[in-house]
UniProtKB/TrEMBL annotation:
Source organism, top-level taxon: Bacteria
Species in which this protein is naturally found: Sphingopyxis jiangsuensis
Name of the molecule in the record: L,D-transpeptidase family protein
Active-site residues per Swiss-Prot or TrEMBL entry: 317 (proton donor/acceptor), 336 (nucleophile)
Keyword Cell wall biogenesis/degradation appears in the UniProt entry: yes
Domain spans labelled L,D-TPase catalytic: 203-361
Entry keyword set: Cell shape, Cell wall biogenesis/degradation, Peptidoglycan synthesis, Signal, Transferase
Length: 450
């Protein structure tokens, strides 16, 4: 992750919040909103076919530069064999311009696809739902045209790499990997960086699930770090990047049907007084029973919920089960991310990103009423899955692969990678227009004889 630096302004603003330390409730069987497990994406995006794009012309020097980049691409976590180095070398020697143009263009576009979007096919990216606009920001055909016109083949390809310093750290560690297994572990995580937006932005929250950690980043600096509890193996936390639009303090909790069926529905039917004592209110009955838990000490979301709309029902929230944060391995939740020191987390959100004063935030907490602090500018929350990160010493720190997501990526290394995102189609020959002729009328036709 980004190296953590002190952010004195934020800490000073939040100093009064230390007086509002949340109590450590004894409840240990918290059940928050369950993740909505979506089917994996098993097919790759269809390539963009550029039918009106003329095949670019390559010089031998430009093609030789491309060949040199390909021959060294293993250092980027990719595999030179994928980009037809032998065919490109043969085309350079052939002196056949049409062959050179085609082979070099094909190799460039496939390599650029893998550098920009990752080599791994979608079928091997388990529970990956990140949205990435790199294709719109850096379309490949203009990149190719610019690279050729400015003789900047190597530089144009290099600028497709993720800009985050952790990617550079993994690349440096790959160069000193001591075994094929270690090298593959690093490649897997370099790949995951390429599946994300090249630039994460200046303001974001990132949770690394295998590390059980959540960080708040502002201006490229980590200003807060929180332990996290993530989904257990049966309800794994997916990889996604929804926009955070606000933070809710003293939230209500609308129970999903699965949890109603697990027990609270029966409690409501048999002992409604007990259910009310736990803060539950409800309407309907049987299959139409709708249950909401009101704010309070027993609320499964604790004092805070980050508002981040997504089809998986994933969000960051507090928990009354504080003891879970003391465990080294913290995969206990139904998929959502429980956040340690949630009072300080939500206070930071309200003060830094919603423009509220610490006093306003403290009053909202103390009121016990549900209050929403909308952010001035929404920002992304990256729920990521890195099993290896730079250790700051030239190597990597490894984390357990909680959900077995590394193995499919490693297995994909032995197979063809993701196809080219853009294909230059051959220009169709011009269509010869038909000549209109007068209709020939026969005597039989006009006389009605068949």
């Amino acid at each position: 992750m980004v190296h953590k630096l002190p952010h004195r302004t934020a800490l000073a603003l939040l100093a009064p919040l230390s007086l509002l330390a949340a109590p450590a409730f004894a409840q240990t069987n918290v059940k928050e909103d369950s993740v909505v497990i979506q089917p994996d994406k098993v097919t790759d995006d269809a390539p963009v076919v550029a039918a009106d794009f003329d095949m670019p012309s390559w010089t031998e020097e430009q093609a030789t530069t491309l060949l040199s980049v390909i021959e060294g691409i293993n250092a980027e976590g990719l595999f030179a064999r994928d980009y037809n180095p032998d065919g490109l070398a043969a085309a350079i020697l052939s002196k056949d311009q049409l062959q050179l143009d085609k082979v070099a263009t094909d190799s460039f576009l496939l390599l650029a696809t893998h550098l920009r979007d990752g080599r791994t096919p979608n079928a091997a990216r388990k529970q990956w739902f990140m949205t990435d606009n790199d294709a719109e920001v850096e379309p490949l055909l203009p990149l190719l045209t610019s690279a050729l016109s400015s003789d900047s083949i190597a530089e144009s390809l290099a600028r497709l790499n993720p800009v985050h310093p952790d990617f550079a750290g993994l690349k440096a560690a790959l160069a000193t990997a001591k075994s094929p297994a270690e090298a593959n572990a690093i490649r897997v995580n370099m790949e995951r960086w390429r599946w994300m937006p090249r630039d994460l932005g200046q303001r974001y929250v990132v949770s690394n699930v295998p590390e059980y950690m959540t960080r708040v980043v502002h201006g490229g600096t980590v200003i807060a770090t929180h332990k996290a509890v993530v989904g257990k193996a049966s309800t794994p936390t997916p990889q996604l990047n929804p926009m955070a639009t606000g933070v809710i303090v003293n939230p209500t909790w609308t129970l999903p049907r699965s949890i109603i069926n697990e027990g609270i529905g029966a409690t409501i039917a048999r002992n409604p007084a007990s259910a009310r004592a736990q803060g539950y209110t409800w309407t309907g009955s049987g299959k139409n029973l709708s249950v909401v838990q009101q704010p309070g000490a027993n609320n499964a979301l604790g004092v805070m919920k980050m508002e981040m709309l997504n089809e998986h029902a994933i969000y960051l929230h507090d928990t009354p089960s504080k003891g879970a944060f003391n465990a080294a391995a913290r995969a206990f939740s139904h998929g959502c991310i429980r956040t340690e020191k949630a009072l300080h987390f939500s206070g930071l959100m309200a003060v830094m990103f919603a423009g509220r004063s610490p006093e306003e935030f403290g009053e909202a907490i103390a009121s016990g009423k549900t209050t929403r602090f909308g952010f001035d500018e929404p920002f992304p929350v990256y729920v990521a899955y890195w099993t290896a990160v730079p250790d700051g010493k030239g190597g990597v720190k490894k984390f357990a692969d909680l959900y077995g997501r590394d193995a499919p990526v490693v297995a994909s290394f032995a197979k063809p990678g993701r196809p080219t995102a853009t294909i230059i189609a051959p220009v169709a020959p011009p269509v010869v227009p038909t000549v209109e002729t007068a209709t020939r009328v026969t005597t039989e036709a006009t006389s009605g004889i068949y």
